[in-house]
Task: structure prediction
Amino acid sequence: MHLSILVLHGPNLNLLGQREPEVYGRLTLQELDRLLLQAAGTLGVNLTIHQSNHEGVLLDLIHAALGSYQGILINPGAYTHTSVALRDALVGVGLPTVEVHLSNIYRREPFRHHSHIAPVAVGQVSGFGADSYCLGLRALVNYLHPPQPPQE
Ligand code: DQA
Result:
């Protein structure tokens, strides 16, 4: 089966490139999306990518994912640390989810150390810039379609 993955960028990620470049790097969101689409091509999966600054829009996108996507790759931005609703939506649809962060949230301010999403995610990749997304995508695809061991 051909996998389709939904990629969600949360609030303020539209500002990538100009937003605190010392923390988030100089890559724009458009450039990051291009890298992700390239990685998806190599992995042979379909990607649909959305960014929203609105919690409710992210919830609606997660609800609508059921039936169309097999997994979700999400950078919830600041909603990571605040949104029980986002966590409930992910649990509600039950789609395997990988959480990613450009920065290493554990070496930043204490309020960023807690994620409401991590306990309901398959896993989390944090601190590798754009690579967090590419590694997270690969991990999600391998989780959904475990690679077969080489035949003797
Ligand atoms: C972030 C980390 C969050 O703490 C922050 O609010 C963001 C970006 C990251 O990708 O490093 O907006 O999710």
User: Anything to note?
Assistant: The chain has five helices and five strands. The helical segments are 21-24, 29-43, 55-65, 84-93, 130-144.
